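Narrative summary of target 7.
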Amino acid sequence: MAAKNKLRRFAENETFDNMFQLNYEDIVEGFYLKNNWHSDFFKNQNPIILELGCGKGEYTVGLAERYPNKNFIGVDIKGARIWRGLKTANEENIANLAFIRIRINLVQYCFGINEVSEIWITFPDPHPKEIRTRKRLTSPQFLKLYRHFLKPGGIIHLKTDNIIFLEYTLDIIKEEGHELLFLTYDVYNEGLNNEVDQIQTFYENKWLKHGTKIKYLQFRLKNEE
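Modeled conformation, tokenized:
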């Protein structure tokens, strides 16, 4: 039954106008929306915000609903998960929203220089083993990749249940001279009353039920010399 559901969702994904599934040929030949998201897809000049590793798209959808004057794009490799966000977006006619199915390490091929204003990273795989730290979405390798398309001064948000991932990110911010803007080890005891504590993902709800404290930080990359 699970396999049938996946195939059904994959097929339905193909019918959505705001879903882009990129293959090797798309990347080699040059993705046609790179540098053209404002003019050719969203038809406006509003800021573009990415959610990397968006999963079911709860944050991408929630942010798009909350901020109609901004454009949001969820990125993930799991098409069956993205389906949920796509389904909601199309049922509710959310126009400022799109999804891309691609591996995160290839996302620079989707966007041009300074085309993205902010990045959200919500409950990423923490890759707890030391030998896999390069795969963490806040590793120096990934932060270097984001420079290809993130505007100078663009904010990167991280929301996670994992203390190791959070402290690893704090170490990278300090070691590389990035600017830490905000930090909390307990989102729901902070009284933020904004999208950080008012939008929840499937995995966030799972960890909250176990009493896990949710962590959040935001930072800017240092200016390149």
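The chain has one domain: 2-220.
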